[in-house]
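Teaching assistant here, posting this on the class forum so everyone can see the example we discussed in section. The complex has two components, and the goal was to see what a joint structure prediction looks like when all of them are supplied at once.
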Amino acid sequence: MSVERGGWKVRTLKLWIPLGAFMVFTLFPFYWMAVTSIKPNSELYNRKIMPMIVYHPTLKHYVDLLTETNFLQWTWNTFLVAITSTAISLVFGTMLAYPLARMKFAGSALISFAIAATYLVPQPLLFIPLADIINQLHLGDTLTSVILTYPTLLVPFCAWLLMGYFRSVPTELEDAARIDGATRLQTMFKVFLPLCVPGFISAGIFAFTLSQNEFLYALIFLTQTDVRTVPVGAIAELVKGDVFYWGQLMAAALLGSVPVAVIYSFFVEHYVAGLTAGAVKQ
Amino acid sequence: MSATYLEYRRASAFRRWTEREGIFSWLMIGPPILFLILLVGYPFAYGIWLSLEDRPVAHAGKFVGLANFIADFNDPVFWQVAINTFVYTFFATILKMVGGLALALTMNQDFRFKNTIRAMMLLPFIVPTVLSTIAWMWMLDPGFSVINWFLKYTGIADPGPSWLGNPSLAMMSLIIVNVWRGLPFYAITLLAGLQTISPDLYEAATIDGAGTWARFRYVTLPLLKPVIFIVTMFSVIFTFADFQLVYVLTRGGPANATHLFATYAFDIAMSGGQLGMGASVALAMLPPLALIIIAMSVYMKPNKS
């Protein structure tokens, strides 16, 4: 009995207290986002009352956000851009990863090194020349500008992740297909790629959240309200000079986060697999 | 008859040619490689060219050699920015590494709702950074900070500090928000690493008389080292080149105390319209980054394992 009680105490100390502290640290900003977004202004800017709870919840900020700003348009733009650039990146990523994972050819070592290096080049190294190039191509303020540039971040990542996945698939089926006379292209599309759906989901989910998260290129290339994405729209249009529309900002932050969080929650395992791929050689 | 036969021969020769491993591979990787050369390779080279020019936006550039870099070298703000970037990267990385390892070790026990808690842990990493940073900005607001309300309520400080108005506190706040966002990545990846360590090793160590600390020091840590290395290098690269957090929370202020290379380059190039100068500041990031990137690319080469 006393041993059990000791075990319980040790467990509280070693597990539940640190875990609880981390959870509070992790989740409090989201709680605060939600609470702020449903507070009337009279409570938001009242220092006398206890701020942790809402006395008179209201949806006013949400209504204002949806009716007075272009939030819905921004959401649509964000999705369109994220889905298109993810699709492009998966196609290009597969085209790179399949030969690198399966075949011997001149330059393959150099190419795989270059892809890893490209993946690690951070955007701030490229945004100034890219801004000038986009300008010269007259692509400023078009969604094409970001649909073209996001894959530069996503293709190396997808290629790299898929390469790891492709290598983990046994080669027997492809060998059999080749012996039966299938061309390389047929082998790839009809035999090999259908086996790799989990890899595509991992890479796709990851690429999708990365493009939802992108800010720098969108900030520079998209300056008109009707082409903006959610993060840029929120920063550029819900802050007017020194005036912050905190209620609307929090509503936008929450609404902008929900779709990503929901999609992620369906594919947590795939996401984690993508996240830890490469770092952890299973 | 013979024409079709010739066509057939020619077509099958072409087909055999494309079936060759080297040819098929290059036909496959050609288009994406071209894409990356056009939109990563070319801009990169063009950025180097820009940094050697006096190039106001919407005007023709004039080649000035290394003048921009010499100007950076003599600019006290540039050195302030360099120090800021190193301070930010160093402390954020250390905190994420230690905190992430602690969290991973905590999560590596058996408990109920483990998968749900792990999924929730990752939320800061999933949610678009700018949006969660807006929430932090409100939490650190000079007038209505909930943290200051808490400090006052518990009697620790009244009035609470101006989190983003004081130079050192602003840097500290940025580091904390960066840690908040990046910690889950460390924790989840290190947790995945921990789970690959065979329990037999711990058993063997225990039989040999190793205590908790010795098991951590001589079993966990050495086996986790490669994972820690990769995760840390990743995080160093993206912390070093961070833009979003600073742009949203402080825009580099107060008095340049929180400007990083990326935000300073942005200010010069985008707000100031000096593309050449801006490009030179951005390129100043390259030497330290290149070292890390080359080391990592060599390490990550998949055919190594």
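For the discussion questions: The first strand of chain B starts at residue 53 and ends at 54. The CA atoms of residues 100 and 186 of chain B lie 5 Å apart. Think about how each of these relates to the inputs above.
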